[in-house]
Write a structure and sequence with these properties.
151 residues, 32% strand, 15% helix, alpha+beta, globular
């Protein structure tokens, strides 16, 4: 992936499914889950799970085919009751879905993606360069010699 503008990687703080229903695909990469977080809504306090995720939004099938997300949401909280359980099971992994409401049901759910779009987003995901793990030391040179400079 090349250089992206700030608007392309903007984070809204919370994933708002209504703003993303109707997109071609979402690449959801959950990074952590917090269980039983107190939440106040209309004066009532309940506990809920919150999943933090990076979500690449492919607004159209053409975006997916071009392997170019239209937006990347970094470290957003997924809090909707029917979205968090599947997302929490994918921590440290990823899944591809859309989001919407099923007829005659309340609340948002993850929905399947059209097969050609799913293939394109899968190719995008698999082609991205792996991020370097800052904790893992670099491998030793092929001849076994330590490549570190002498001090």
């Amino acid at each position: 992936m090349g250089l992206m503008s700030l608007s392309e990687v903007a984070s809204s703080g919370y994933f708002k499914p209504a703003e993303h229903s109707g997109v071609a695909a979402l690449l959801v990469e959950p990074t952590s889950v917090e269980r039983d977080v107190p939440n106040e809504y209309q004066g009532v306090v309940t506990n809920r799970d919150e999943v933090t995720a990076d979500i690449s939004v492919f607004a159209t099938a053409a975006d997916a085919e071009a392997k170019r997300p239209s937006t990347v949401l970094r470290s957003v909280k997924v809090t909707h009751a029917r979205l968090t359980p599947p997302a929490s099971r994918a921590v440290a992994g990823a899944f591809i879905a859309t989001v919407g409401q099923k007829p005659n049901e309340k609340g948002y759910v993850w929905l399947p993606v059209d097969a050609p779009v799913e293939r394109a987003v899968t190719e995008y995901y698999e082609a991205r360069p792996a991020e370097a793990d800052p904790v893992t030391p670099a491998p030793a040179s092929a001849d076994g010699a330590d490549d570190a400079p002498p001090f």
